[in-house]
Q: What sequence folds into this?
């Protein structure tokens, strides 16, 4: 019985990995060789293919998190405001992992 359950789970995992591989969206590479999502339509395609790609406002998941968002102020290395509104966004699985850390860490 345990062997059969193991085989079933292995097959299911294999199928999930195969089908998620087919659903991958091509992300363009910038001049430095980094994959960059700079188009909202591409972002929506990524999220449709893999819900783990969705960006989540970290304040909604970990409200007590201390943040220092220098690039929303002039107090950064550029001396210019680079973000119009201060916000911290993270992929949902990473946000949940951060929430699970002990409270005295963040």
A:
């Amino acid at each position: 019985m345990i062997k059969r359950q193991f085989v079933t789970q292995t097959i299911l995992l294999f199928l999930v990995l195969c089908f998620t591989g087919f659903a991958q969206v091509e992300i363009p590479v910038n001049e430095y060789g980094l994959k960059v999502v700079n188009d909202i339509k591409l972002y929506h395609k990524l999220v449709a293919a893999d819900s783990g790609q969705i960006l989540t406002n970290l304040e909604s998941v970990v409200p007590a998190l201390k943040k220092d968002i220098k690039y929303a102020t002039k107090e950064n290395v550029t001396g210019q405001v680079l973000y119009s509104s201060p916000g911290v966004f993270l992929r949902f699985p990473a946000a949940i992992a951060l929430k699970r850390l002990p409270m005295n860490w963040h």
